[in-house]
Amino acid sequence: MDANETEALLAEAQAKAASLQEEFLRAKAETENVRRRAQEDVQKAHKFAIENFAENLLPVLDSLEAALTHSSTDLAKVREGVELTLRQLTAALEKGRVVEVNPVGEKFDPHRHQAISMVPAEQDANTVVSVLQKGYVIADRVLRPALVTVAAPK
């Protein structure tokens, strides 16, 4: 192999290296763009989820404001209005996948329940006897554990 052939092979290898370098840089830039777009999509999804949840709460707010402007001495009507507003709030929470935890009769689960006391009871030991405050989960993640009393061992 003479010097001309070697120089030709070297020039060809350098061109190939430059081409591969350019392809690498393009692929790297595309990967970064995909990562950035995915991050932006996640941020938008969080933003719109919060907006959707807030929209679901607006009818509850409207009902409470209406109740304040219409004073009534009829206790039955006031109670009916409060019950309606509670149903609206419950529906809004359910649309946001917030679910009530009311574990009476279930086995005590320290991940979903917070025991306040143990009481003698007919149920098996470590069974929830009563709920002092309901708990709530969102998509199987505990927002607030239920405050419970638990059956003591016999």
UniProtKB/TrEMBL annotation:
GO terms for biological process: protein folding. It comes from the Bacteria. The keyword Nucleus does not apply. Residues 3-37 form a coiled coil. Keywords: Chaperone, Coiled coil, Cytoplasm, Stress response. PANTHER family: GRPE PROTEIN, GRPE PROTEIN HOMOLOG, MITOCHONDRIAL. Belongs to the GrpE family. Homodimer. This is Protein GrpE. It comes from Caballeronia sordidicola.
